[in-house]
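2.7 Reproducibility. Because tokenized structures are sensitive to small changes in the input, we list the exact sequence used for Xylulokinase, including any N-terminal residues retained from the expression construct. No trimming or masking was applied before prediction.
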Amino acid sequence: MNLVETAQAVEAGKVSLGIELGSTRIKAVLVTDDFNTIASGSYVWENRYEDGVWTYPLEEVWSGIQQSYTQMAADVQSKYHASLKHINAIGISAMMHGYLAFDKNDDLLVPFRTWRNNITGQSADELTKLFDFNIPQRWSIAHLYQAILNHEDHVANVDFFTTLAGYVTWKLSGKKVLGVGDASGMFPIDEKTGTYNQDMLDKFNNLENVKQYPWQLADILPDILPAGKTAGSLTAEGAKLLDASGNLEAGSVMAPPEGDAGTGMVGTNSVRQRTGNISVGTSAFSMNVLDKPLSKVYRDIDIVMTPDGSPVAMVHVNNCSSDINAWANIFGEFANRLGIDLKPDRLYETLFLASTKADADAGGLVNYSYQSGENITKIQAGRPLFVRTPNSHFSLPNFMLTQLYAAFAPLQIGMDILVNEEHVQTDVMIAQGGLFRTPVIGQQALANALNIPITVMSTAGEGGPWGMAVLAAFAQRNTGESLEDFLDQDVFTNPESMTLSPEPEGVKGYRKFIGKYQSGLSVEAAAGDAISD
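Resulting structure tokens (single pass, no recycling of outputs):
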């Protein structure tokens, strides 16, 4: 579309909005019917560690959403001289899992417990054994059952619990629903029915320490919807929550809310069997759409769903880019002391390009980028840690390469299970996330770490909210077309992408790095024990 056509589309409301509440940023993306982004807005936030829990205040959820929307609407006005009054379809996505519990008066019972918490170890272990199905610590059911095991008073008053995306959609549309992908991070899904696994619901309800409560589990879980269905419409109250100016009209079709894993799959066109994608950010995860069930239960492999209900093997790690961001801030401060004002993209590009001069094994340097605990390596408390020996080759290039290697290390350890033990194969593995805004560098490091070709699309840095906008448009169309066909035939008609294959020397160097990394995990664990936060 040209500028005039885009302005006309905005005036007619022929646009879709995707909002994603990520771990470090809330972002709103507006797309036209041809799925081109025409405006965006964002809000930066950080989780807080309060009373032993990683959390975000709900007040900041709404102030962040409103700021993102306001910036996006201003972007529309500035570019197209058109006022945004009506939006065809809206979709909300957010970080998966976690625990938001409400009473019958819709009041929050305890502060939001995010995916980042690893405080549900007993619950996750007991439920995994009960169900013969892996229940990770971050899943909503693990949080609920841990609260039961802890004899928390609020459990008796739970009337509804959900994820962050489910909460926001509820407040915008009045519907207590979830997309099947996000729901699969609350409780296991039956692939055949597309609903919560009834046998596992019964097992949970029949636990002696659960019978005492006045609710049945199915009654306090959100309803499930697959991609393409509608989750009600934007109410007048919801429109005011989104747009503080009052310009936005009610009536927009609401898509089923999804988790960031689901939008990552959509944003990379990875919903067909034998496709896969990797999302990297504060956390990281790989999604492999299965063409057959795994042979057994793995504690480090989660079985979740695509937004249209196909099983996915998910490797999720709590830590990825936070430590890189912290070091980049230090280098940025140093540059400022020298009177040099480096914009973020330029700062990261400069640091990442330095790594191209590194030794293949990062000079023997080792880094642990654990801002929080890491389940996949059995680390309980995060203590970012950099280690070198007197004979290591300590240079800026090697330092930056070890940062990239460390960001991908827990993911690689989990992926080895799928590749080496289950022989899971994907026809394409597409990566997305802010680390790939600088071309080639992070992509090549990831290819070397996983020893597989990695593809990055031109939308790699902004895939999540854009993917949610696409799901919103899909819900608004409601044609009965399959999601995979819709993406292939209507959305990704001419995708721009680049694929990099592993470099033999890089693979060999990474293997040396990961050997040192795994040997030193006891040091990282000891740091968590010895150094209080």
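The CA atoms of residues 16 and 473 lie 6 Å apart.
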